[in-house]
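Quick sanity check, Transcriptional regulatory protein, C terminal:
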Amino acid sequence: MDAGQLRISLLGACTASSGDTPLDLGGRRQRAVLVVLLLARGEVVPVERLTEAVWGDHPPADAAGALQAYVSHLRRRLQPGSAARTRSSIIVSEGRGYAARLSPDAVDVWRFERLLDRSGTASARETAQLVGEALALWRGPPLAEWADEPWAEAEIARLAELRAVARERLMAARLALGEAALLVPDLESMAAEEPLREERWRLLALALYRASRQADALGALRRARTTLAEELGVDPGPALRELEQQVLAQSPALAVPVQRSGEPEPPPAAGPPDDLLDRERELVAVRAALDDLVAGEPRLLLVEGPAGIGKTRLLTEARRLAAQRSVRVLTARGSQLEKAFGFGAVRQLFEPELVAPERRDALLAGAAASARTVFDLAPGESPEGSFAVLHGLYWLAVNLSADGPLVLAVDDLQWCDSASLRWLAYLVRRLDAVPVLVVGTVRTGEQHPDEQLLTELSLEPAAVVVRPAPLSPGAIADLVERRLGGPVSPLFALACSRTTSGNPLLLRQLLRGLEADAVRPDAAHADVVVAVGSRAVSSMVLMRLRRLPGPAADVARAAAVLGDGASLPAVAALAGLTEAETAAGLAALARCEIVRDEQPMAFVHALVRDAVYRDLPSAERALRHERAAALLRDAGANDEQVAAHLLLAPARGDPATVEVLRRAARTAAERGASDSGVTLLRRALAELPVGELRCDVLTELGMLESRIDGAASTEHLLQAYQLGEDPRERATLAVAIARTEVFASPPGVATAFAREAARALPPDLDDHRQALLAIERTGGYMHGLEPQVWATTDPGRPVGDGLGARMLAATLAFEATVDGVDRDRAVRLARSALDGDRLWAVDDGLLWVVAANVRMLADDDLGDFWTRARALAHARGSLFTAMSVSVWEGYWRWRRGELDEALACLTAALDQDRMWGGSGIGLPYTRSFQIGCHLDRGDVAAARRAADAAVEGPAAGDGGRLLEHAVARLLAVEGRPADALARLDAIPMPVPVRNPVWNPWLTTAAIALDRLGRRGEAVSLMEEEVDRLRRWGAPTYLGTALCRLGELRGDDGLDDVREAVAVLAPTHAAVELARARCMLGLRVQVPDEEAVELLRAALDTALDRGALGIQRRARAGLARRGRPDESGRDAQRCPTSTERRIVELAAAGHGVRDVAQRLFLTPGTVQAVLESVSGNGLKFPSSGPADARYPATGRIP
C-alpha cells in the first residue's frame, strides 16, 4: 500500500483510510496509542508516557509488551498488504519509545493548522478559501472519545481555540469581501456561543455597521460591555473601545476595504464648485453615497444644520453629481404653509412621473396600487388606511428604481407633512437591495411639530448625517474678495467672520449690503462691517424692501403669505395690484436677491421669506390668509390649498369654512394621511363652538384619531356621545368609545362607561347592549377589577347573529377558558365569534383577538388566521390593529416554537404601542411573552433585559399578572427561587384563573420549590396542574406539564415523559416536543438506539428554532451515549415559515419583486433568503418525513 494515500482523522471520531478504503484501527486503547503518537508530531514518546495515557494509574504487569502488541497491530492495520519488515516506516521504534512518521497531509489536524497558518498572510479572498477548507476538515469535537482523559484535555482545548480563531478569521475575511448583511445571523450565534470572546463582538458590531445598522452595532457593543462586566468584572478591551468610537463617528475606516485588482484606478474626483468653499468633507459624503447607490447600496443622507448654513446648496450639488452619474433625481421641498397637505411632499416627488397614463398604470400596478389614493387616482374606491398607502408608496419607489438608481431629494424635511415623513421613515427601513438614495435637509436649532419622526430618521442605521460647519476665515476672505474686490484686509475678513459666525447666508446678505454701500474691504472699513452686520438678515431684507420703488414691498408680503410656488395672478390678486405691476415688483425683488428670478415664484431662502412674513403683525397675517383662502376658492383651487390658509385664518363660525376643512380632511384620510386629517378637523372644531354640526365633526375627528391617538380619540368621541340625540348613532358611538377606553384609559373607566351606556339604550338595540356587556366584562377582567364590579349580572347567551352577539360570544368563550372545564363550549363560542371574519368590521383588535386567543389556548387550529389579520391591519391602516396582531401572532408563534419570528412580532408590537400612545395595557402581555421566548431559547441574559425594560411597579390587570409570572420564572432560572416564590405570592388575582393554560402559577411555583430542595411540594403542584390540564384537554399544554412532572419525579417520571412525547408529537409545539424528546433521550432507562434517535430529533429542532439550552443538553446526551454530534450543523438552521413561503413562490417561477409584494416583504429580504438557500445557509428538509418514528420538527407548518 502507498503510505501517501493514508489519511487519519482526529477532528471528530478517530478514523483512518487508505484511498477510499476505511481502515480498522482496533479498540479504544489501541487507538489511544496512535493518537498520543500523532499528537507528538514525530517526536519520540517514551513507553512510560504511553503507558500512563492508555492505562492511567492501573497499568498491566507487562505494559511494555502490551504496548508493543498495540504498535504491531497498528502497523499492520495502517499498512495492510505490506511486508512485515517495511511496516515500521510509519510507527518507528527509537530507544525506549515510539514515534509516528507520516507525510504532512496524512493527519487532518496537521492539514488544518497548516491551512490556518497560510491564511494569516493571505488576501481576504484567499483567506476565506483557505480557512473554509480548513474548517471543512472538522467532523465533530476533536478527540471526543478521550475528552475525560488528562493527556487529551490540553490538546482538545488547544484545538477548540484554534477552531474558534479560524471561524473568527473566516468571518473577518468575508466581512472584508462585503458580505456584512449575510453574516449578521452567524455572528449573532457565535457571540451567543462564546460571549466572552471580544473578537466575536467586534466582528458582529462591524457587520451590523456595514449592513447599515448603526444603532444595532452600538447595541451589540453595549451588550458586550454588559456581558464582560457581569461575567468577568472588566471593561471591553482596546479593540472594542476603538470600534465604538469609530461607529459613533461614522469613521471612513469602517468601510469595506477595497480589494485590489488589475483594473486601472478611477480618475481623481473633480474639486468642489467655486461657490462651495469649506465643504470638502461634506462632498466626500455625498459622492460616497452616490457611488454606493450606483453600486447597488441604498442610503439615507441627511444634511443637518442651522438656517443659512448651506444645506440647500449641498442638496443642489448632490442633484448635480447624481446627474453626472446618469442617476435620476426626484425632488420635493417642505413648506410651512403646506404642512397640512396629506402626502404633499410625496406628491411633489412622484406626480411628475405619473403624468403619462401608460407609465402611471405600470408604476402603480401590483402592490403599488394602494398608493393610487395619494394621487387622487382611485375615485369611488373605499379609502384604505395609512399602512396600505405607505406600502403602496414604497412599491412605487421600488418600481421607479427598476429602471436604474434613484435619488429622492427633499429640502426642508422639518416642514414636510407628517404623512410624507412617516413614509420616508417607512421607506428607509426597507431599502435593502433597492437602489434608492434619500437625501434630505433638516434645519436644527428650532422645535418642529414632527421632532420625533425627524429623530427616528436621523437614528436609522442606514442614515449618514452630515453637519456642515461654519465657514473658515480663509473661505470668508475668499468670498469677500470675489464680491467686493481685493485685496482684502485680514481685519476686515475677521470682522465679517465674527459678525456672521461663518454662516454662508448671513455672509451673502452682509456682502450684498456692503456692496450696495460701495464699502471697500480694507481695515478702515472693518467697523462698517459690524454696523451693517448687526442688522442681521431680517433687518437687511426689510431695509432693502423699504428702498425699493413702487409696490415691490406689497408684492413681497403677498408672496410671503401665499408661500413658494404661488402664481403671478394669485400674488397680484392678494396684493391688490395689476399683473403688470406685480411682475415689475417681482423683477425688483429678484434684482436685490429677495426672490428668485423664476416662475413659479420662490424666495431665495426660507429665512428671507420668514423675515418678510413675520414683519406683518399677527392679526394682519391671519386676515391676509383668510383673504387668500377666499381668492383661491373663487379661482377653483382644491380644498387642500384653501384649507392650508384657513388653518391660519381667524375662526368666524362659518359653516362653509367647516365644510372645506371636512372635505380636505376626508381627502387626507383617503390618502392615508391621518395626521393631516386630524389637524384639519381640529381646526374645523374650533370654527364651531356650538351647533348641530359640531357633533358630526367630533365623531369624524374621534374616529380618525382612533388610528393614531387613543387618548384624544376617546375625549372627542365622548363629547360627540354627549351631544348626540339619535339613539342608534349614540349606541354605535358608545361601543367605539368603550372599546377604545379599554386600551386608552385608566383601569375601570371602560367598564363603568359600558355599563352606564348599556343602561341608557332603548329596548330595540339589544345587539348594541350585548356589545357593551362584552366590553364591560372583558375590560373588567383585563384591568384586574374585582368581579363584583363587572360580573354583577348573568350575561346569558348570545342572542342573534349580530356583531354585538359575536362580541359577547368572544367574551363568554374566554370566561369558559379561564374556568378551565368546558373546552368544547369555549371553542364553539370562539368559532362563532370569528365566523366569516365579520367581527373585524367593527373591532380594531379587542374581542376578535380574545376569541383567537381562546382558540390558541384550546389548541384549535387557526389556519391562516394571523396572515389574514395582518393583511387586515395593512389594508385598514390602523396602528392599533397592527399592534394587536403583532402581540398575539407573537404569542401564537412562541407556542409553536417559532422563536425568531415570535420575537420579531413582539419587538414590532413594542414600537407600535409606543407610537399609538395608549395606556400601555398591552405592554405587560408583550414583555411577558418576550421573556418566555428568550427563556425557551436558553438566553437568560436577553430575558433579563426584557424584564428590566418592562414597566416597573406592581402588577396591574391580566397582562401584569402574566408579566409577574414570567419574571418569577426568570428569577427561578437565574438561581433565585426564594425571590421567585415571593414574587408569585404577591401577585393579585381578583378573578380566580383555574386553567393553567392562562395561569402558570403552579408550574412556576413548582420550578422554584424544586430549586429550593422542596421537590415533594413541587411534584404535588405539578400533579395538580396535570389533572387540570387533562380536564381542559389541550395537548400542547398537557404535554408541556407532563414533561415538567416527569422531570421532577426523576426515575419514577419515565412514563410521564413518554406520555409527553406522545401527546406533543402531533401538535405544532416544536420546541416543547424537542424538550420532551431530549428529556426522554437523557433517561438512562431508555435504550441507546431509541435515545440517540430522540436526542438527534431534539437537536435538529433546537438548531432549527434557536433553542440553545436544548441544543446543549442534546449534544451532551449524544456524547454520553458514545454517539457525539458530528454534523457540524452549528451554522445551519431550517427556514422559518416566511422563508419557506419565499422559496415555494420562487420555485413556482415568481420573481423576487413579485414574491416580496405577495408577502409584504422587501425585495432585499427575499433576495437574502434566496441567496442563503443557494449557498446552503438554510437547511430545507426533503418533502418526505425525515424519520417516520421521530420526525425532526414535529409537524411542519
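Posting the structure with no commentary besides this: The two ends are 53 Å apart (CA to CA).
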